Predict the structure.
Amino acid sequence: MEKRTISNERVRKLSKVAGTSYGVTLPIEFVRELGWQEHQKLTVTLKGNTMIIKDWEK
């Protein structure tokens, strides 16, 4: 079995949520590595064709 590391790429499906939004699940090892928690606020930025998800800063 391949050892998972933070640099490994993961393929995820885009799902429709509540009719007007979309959601994607994040790999648990990425969330753990970043120390993120459930209900944590995140910022989503679009740069060209890349989406960037970061911890929200007050």
Q: What stands out?
A: The CA atoms of residues 1 and 8 lie 14 Å apart. The beta strands are 15-17, 21-23, 42-47, 50-55. The chain has one helix and four strands.
